[in-house]
Design goal:
Elements: H1 31-38, H2 42-51, H3 57-85, H4 89-92, H5 94-97, H6 103-134, H7 141-161, H8 163-188, H9 194-198, H10 205-218, H11 220-223, H12 240-268, H13 270-276, H14 293-321, H15 328-348, H16 354-381, H17 403-418, H18 454-470, H19 472-480
Helix pairs in contact: 1-8, 1-12, 1-14, 2-10, 2-12, 3-10, 3-12, 3-16, 6-7, 6-14, 6-15, 6-16, 7-14, 7-15, 8-14, 12-13, 14-15, 16-17, 16-18, 17-18
Length: 482
Amino acid sequence: MSTAPEVRAVERQGIDVIAESDRKGRPRGLFWPWFAANVSVLGLSYGSFVLGFGISLAQATVVSVVGVAFSFLLCGIVAIAGKRGSAPTMVLSRAAFGVRGNRLPSFLSWVLTVGWETALASLAVLATSTVFRELGWDDGVVTKLVALVVVAALVVGAGIAGFDVIMRLQTVITVVTAVLTVVYVVLAVPSIDLGTLGALPAGSAQNVIGALVLVMTGFGLGWVNAAADYSRYLPRSSSTGGVVWWTTFGGALAPAVLVVVGVLLAGSSKDLNGAIGADPIGALTTILPVWFLVPFALVAILGLVGGAVLDIYSSGLALLSAGVRIPRPVAAGVDGVFMVAGAVYVVFFAKDFISPFQAFLVTLGVPIAAWAGVFVADVVLRRRAYADAELDDVHGRYGDVRWAAIGLVVLGTVLGWGLVTNTYGVPAWLNWQGYLLGPFGLGGREGAWAYANLGVLVALVVGFAGTLLTARGTVRRQEHDS
């Protein structure tokens, strides 16, 4: 009789703890889902976003590598909790926030992941339309609708199927997209103009910080709330260092390279740099030979689908963690409905992509950074496995509502939103942000610090430092009862 682990067509596991018999694999297996989710050519477009802060080639390169690596290191630390607790990220977060107190960060996590899957699905549709136009084919409404149906079917189908199907799909996506992305980079190299790049003026410290924050929120901080969802299937005897390394390395490798290449391309051409704002993926086709347009469409769509698949899986788990009582496959289907509705708006009604996208990143990046600070510090303080049964028990060691942790998220969010600005103009109702820039002597909403988006970093530090100072005794008491 074979002893190979069962591969299920549809994962039945919800947010409950993974049984010992179902734990499998090694930390190095984490490389595949994280690399596949982040090898998307969207990373190239971030080069344009970074240069939008008015910084030099050297500054942009440092910002890109440091921002990507540090933000995914946070994911690596959170992934430790998955190995220790064998439960989804937003269930393990109950140890820090309480069983019902954790519903607030779970809801925030759900909004963030649904927003990301919407953005990625929208980009896949826009990229398909642009490739069709470059080939001289119809790129109108029908093409976009068909592309949306195909993308939605792939993403929602994999999200409903669950862990085993996703892990196999991500392995295939990793190989195909990695090879085709390398080909794209080779073909794009002749478009790089070192003379133009060398003439880019250096930006201020505030501009460098703003670019760094954008990279952090666009990469690791966009995944940190899902970082334990894949390590939870590992045996608890797995190497902690291995979990951190393979999560960080798998997530950061492709984006660190792609963003730097994107800086080189966008910095060499004003036309390309401007076009990326409206269609971040499709604009990249303008420097390609016609024969590579179809392979490019394949690599672009597969890369975006790879990221959206992880998002819809984790958004379903976050919805369940927030207290919605439905089966996990149904939760993934519900999230798919929101994803399609959001993609319809972005593709058919929004004036451009970059404005609502960057406003989304900055606005949600603040409370998620505060939560990440709290949870990362909580993971660092712990030494033992979580008490499985008590993660659902409001009368257990983790409690019902832990007001100190919630207070840190609220404080970090209030301070953070006061130190960021919605400088992108969409949506206009976010223009109330930045209300502390004047009182704190930072020049107000029009001053030099308005573009630094310090609020994300402040929220992260408030959550992390506050938890280290206030929760050490609580964690020790929880672990003493084990």
